[in-house]
């Protein structure tokens, strides 16, 4: 029996996670928003108005990439730029009502699709998935913090 290490768990889980990720987004992609755009909208929803540099750092992307994504979202009326009240030269970006509605709609569609995937599990596997959700959420939070801290993961 293999020793229980992060490496052995990663070897067992990564291929299936990749397959699920690709399949999920192929089928659940009902929005014409990209994954990074949805991530930015989610971050603005959670954190409130933010500077572009802060969004880039937290998303682990370069400033021009963040600026381009925000410009596209602004063109579609999902975010708006505001003068930073603490630094008149600075600009913050805020989620609009339209952006919040689109974020909610896409989230609900994706939750429904993922729930359909979970319906294929028996009761015991559903309980295991419920427990795994806590671990996955902790991993996502820890990884998200690492990306925001270093900007290169």
From TrEMBL:
Molecular function in Gene Ontology: DNA binding; DNA-binding transcription factor activity
Pfam families registered for this protein in UniProt: MarR
Domain HTH marR-type: 6-141
Keywords on record: DNA-binding, Transcription, Transcription regulation
InterPro entries according to UniProt: HTH_MarR-typ, WH-like_DNA-bd_sf, WH_DNA-bd_sf
Domain of life assignment: Bacteria
Coiled coil region boundaries: none
Protein name, per record: MarR family transcriptional regulator
Organism: Corynebacterium frankenforstense DSM 45800
């Amino acid at each position: 029996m293999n020793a229980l290490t992060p490496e052995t768990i990663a070897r067992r889980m990564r291929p299936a996670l990749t397959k699920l990720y690709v399949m999920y987004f192929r089928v659940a992609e009902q929005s014409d928003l990209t994954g990074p755009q949805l991530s930015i909208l989610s971050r603005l929803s959670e954190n409130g108005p933010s500077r572009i540099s802060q969004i880039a750092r937290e998303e682990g992307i370069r400033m021009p990439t963040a600026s381009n994504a925000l410009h596209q979202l602004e063109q579609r009326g999902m975010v708006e730029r505001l003068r930073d009240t603490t630094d008149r030269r600075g600009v913050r970006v805020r989620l609009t009502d339209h952006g919040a509605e689109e974020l909610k709609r896409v989230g609900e569609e994706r939750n429904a699709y993922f729930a359909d995937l979970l319906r294929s599990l028996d009761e015991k596997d559903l309980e295991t998935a419920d427990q795994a959700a806590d671990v996955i959420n902790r991993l996502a939070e820890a990884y998200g913090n690492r990306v925001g801290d270093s900007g290169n993961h």
